[in-house]
Amino acid sequence: MEEVPDQQGESQKPPSWKEPEIVNISAVPNSPPPSQQFMPVGQQFIPAGQQFVPVSHQYVVQKNQTAVVIGWLVVVYGGLMILLTPLNFLPVLDIDGNLVELPYAYKMSASILNLIIASLSIIGGYRITKYEKVGIWIVMGSLALSFVGGIFLAGIFPDSISSVGFTEQESLAFTAIFSLFCNGICAGFVAIPLLVSNNGLE
Q1: b/e 120-153 (16+ beta carbons within 10 angstroms → b)
Q2: More confident residue, 7 or 160
Q3: Average pLDDT, rounded, for the chain
């Protein structure tokens, strides 16, 4: 290179210039290009070298209130059953207005059955208000018990209904149809939380 004289007449060599070294990134194993280098942050990936503020994302899902309403209605229904159970011991009249004497064993059996069904309804209804799906199955079980228990009592004590104006066969048929109709409606009502969206049941 030529020496360039400075203002004082002294020769000065220009600074040496060196070609930049080119590094082949593809030759380095497992090293993505700079544009594809990312840093994992939680569930997100932020390009390496950039400043970031970690943010936790929380999503609140509003649960449907249908389960709460139906659950408390079932609890109230169970409470009313308990309060009305002593009515089983009141005198019964037939269609002609005559007093009918029902067996004491029937009255006791019906009262115990009502108390069991009412207790299951209260427990199941309360658990439905807590968005627990098992509460629905508890109430469904109480309805099934009501259906089977009613037919059983009608078969063991046929006079309890036939004395009111039905024959033994008619009393069993009437009890089965009426109980199936009522319990079916109640089961459909209790199952409503399973059909709505965002029911929140667990």
Answers
A1: bbbbbbbbbbebbeebbebbbebbebbbebbeeb
A2: 160
A3: 76
Other Cβ atoms within 10 Å of 64 Cβ, number: 16
Specify the range with the lowest mean pLDDT, choosing from 42-46, 85-89, 124-128: 42-46
40 SS3 class:
strand
Sign of CA dihedral 108, 109, 112, 115: negative
Task: Flag whether 59 is in a domain.
Answer: no
Would you say residue 136 lies in a domain?
yes
The gap from C-alpha 28 to its chain's centroid, in whole angstroms, comes to 53
**Residue 88 contacts residue 79 (beta carbons within 8 Å):** no
CA proximity to 131, closest of 66, 49, 48, 37:
66
Q: What is the spatial distance between Cα 161 and Cα 159, in angstroms, rounded to a whole number?
A: 5
Does some domain include residue 126? Answer: yes
20: in domain: no
Number of domains in the chain: 1
Q: Which domain holds residue 84?
A: 66-195
pLDDT tens sequence across 84-120: 999 888 887 766 777 777 788 888 999 999 999 999 9
Question: Do the Cβ atoms of 127 and 71 come closer than 8 Å?
Answer: yes
Report the distance separating Cα 198 and Cα 58, nearest Å.
Answer: 17
In the block, tokens 């965002």 appear at 198
